[in-house]
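User: hey, got a sec? need SGNH hydrolase-type esterase domain-containing protein folded
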Amino acid sequence: MRPSIVLFGDSITEESFGEGGWGAHLANHYSRSADVVLRGYSGYNTRWASLVAGRAIATLPRSAVAAVTVLFGANDASLPDRASSFQHVPLPEYKDNLRAICAVLRTRWPSAAVILITPPPVDERGRVRYPYGGDVSGLPERTNEVTGRYARACVEVAKQSGLRIIDIWSRMQKFPGWETSFLRDDGLHLTPLGNRLLFEEVVFALRDANLSLEVLPADLPLCSDIDPNDAVKYFQE
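Assistant: Yep! Here you go:
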């Protein structure tokens, strides 16, 4: 059976199948080797995700999933006294919720590679320009400094749990001008270039999990391998 790679997360995951999205890149990359399955829920924090994780994956096969990415934290890191306070999750609970989500995934798919992804950085100027819910306070309802705390907590959970981690918060900030090259005008969601960078990091993590294109077999014979004078034998089970 063709293996599946499941993407579980908030809007940064839900939007990933859009044009130039990291999930779309991933689906194209594995087009003959694996199915990329989207489970993205815009606006969700880990509190909500931990409650619905089992339901979200209930229809997926138990045996075919080879890897799952988990990307939450951008909403959890909303400031508790600003416009999107309803999404805020305290840091200790965020870590507990991540552990609970990963426990559900590992119970469902014991042999699958679970890859945690930190929330990306935040450009506060963009959050002020595009305020949540029409907020007129002139203050960002998320900051990069606070989001960084959640990113570090995600890294900590991954290391403690023996899981792979993509620290996209740190990775993006290694590039000058990351605020506008990797993030859209809202200072939160990813540009095509930001999506490309995250896609590349996911491919590296999957390769580390022994799920590269060089390892996974192509689904059904390649056209170039088929002898047109005796094609039938290539399609017999």
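Quick note: The chain has one domain: 4-235. Let me know if you need anything else on SGNH hydrolase-type esterase domain-containing protein.
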